[in-house]
Amino acid sequence: MTTTSPLDWHAAFSGRAQLMKASTIRELLKLTQQPDIISFAGGLPAPELFPLDAVKQASATVIEKYGAASVQYGTTEGHLPLREWIAAQTPGITPAHVQITTGSQQGLDLLGKVLITPGDVMAVEEPTYMGALQAFQPYEPRYVGLPMDEEGIIVDALRDILQTERVKVLYTIPNFQNPTGRTMSLARRQALVELTAQHGVIVLEDDPYGKLRFSGELLPSLYELGLQYHGGDADANHVVYSSSFSKTLVPGLRDAWVQGARPIINKLVQAKQGADLHTPIFNQMIVTELLADVLPRQIEIVKAAYGARAQDMMARMREHFPAGAEYTTPDGGMFLWVTLPDGVNTTDLLPLAVERKVAYVPGTPFYANGGGENTLRLSYSNARTEQIERGIAALGATIRDALQ
Ligand SMILES: Cc1ncc(COP(=O)(O)O)c(C=O)c1O
């Protein structure tokens, strides 16, 4: 007779899987999903702005135009007309420099997979996008935090770090960073590209928000500056760029891309084959149909709405936040970042905010090596004027109580 004892799944998990942790913040944020809570926590694009009719029409067009090929297996590299359009945005690059990914989140995972050997040093902004940390973590980098100010990464601090650390990869979000809303200045961009080129550091530039600038001047990407630095040779560029249609069109089609030197793109193709063969071809064809008319129109609509919401939020913060509560002033994107006086713990404060029917994301999970206990992220993209008024008043009251 055989007895069946329950399988010990935890012991069965790989070392890599053991490194994947349920986020305590995610658990905490479940609290905030009740309908009467005004949540500035989730970084969701505004659903009422989605171009649903255009997506519906494009779906029909794609079936008429491509028939069965629209739902057949596709190439791993991605739908050629989409890659051609992406390549045409940057002089000097070709579709061979572009890999379509299933969201830029997949790009981060695949880049981690092909670049990081356990123990490799990865420099990340402090704070940075927590989803990137989650993507890279199973590949076991050793993180080095890069201090930032209002102009983005402090390049002189990176220069000092490079004296003692062999940084292999630097991950950055130069435009309207998630979580801080900050934008890297032109001078810092130039200095960063030059310094990393000199030290042979691979730069991963994550840019899902770049097109959503509602104030200030457009700045060149690190990728473009990298191209210039290398005399226009796309295969010599040490900057690898990633962007997405999630924030400009819709996130649910999961269409995004990575562009970079051919050796890295070719390696990503191999990694992606093993991951999902290809990004859904139907979705790529729909996005391609929307590029000419809908995308530019949609970018204007989204920018105007988010710009107005950011202004609303900052006006209410001026009114309701006590002295000592500081916040960033974003020029685009979906987020702003609040720093409270030292000693205030925003994780402890969250249940009190939820009691007052408002929610945010505490800052610590955005720090690769800990810190930021007195910080929090607010998202204005999915909030209407009335919610901003009530929500920021409630948050202001919560903070005032905490400071007493
Ligand atoms: C900085 C950053 N990178 C990547 C992503 C992932 O975007 P997606 O996978 O939808 O393209 C996000 C989403 O919020 C983000 O903020």
UniProtKB/TrEMBL annotation:
Transferase found in the keyword field: yes
Cofactor(s) this protein requires: pyridoxal 5'-phosphate
GO BP term, pick one: alpha-amino acid metabolic process
Domain of life: Bacteria
Top-rank EC class of the record's enzyme: transferase
MF-aspect GO terms: kynurenine-oxoglutarate transaminase activity; pyridoxal phosphate binding
EC code(s) of this entry: 2.6.1.7
InterPro entries registered for this protein in UniProt: Aminotransferase_I/II_large, Class-I_PLP-dep_aminotransf, PyrdxlP-dep_Trfase, PyrdxlP-dep_Trfase_major, PyrdxlP-dep_Trfase_small
Gene3D superfamilies the UniProt entry points to: Aspartate Aminotransferase, domain 1 (3.90.1150.10), Type I PLP-dependent aspartate aminotransferase-like (Major domain) (3.40.640.10)
Aminotransferase class I/classII large domain boundaries: 51-395
Keywords in alphabetical order: Aminotransferase, Pyridoxal phosphate, Transferase
Matches recorded under PANTHER family: AMINOTRANSFERASE, KYNURENINE_ALPHA-AMINOADIPATE AMINOTRANSFERASE, MITOCHONDRIAL
Summary of subunit composition and partner proteins: Homodimer.
Family that this chain belongs to: Belongs to the class-I pyridoxal-phosphate-dependent aminotransferase family.
The protein's name in its UniProt record: Putative transcriptional regulator, GntR family
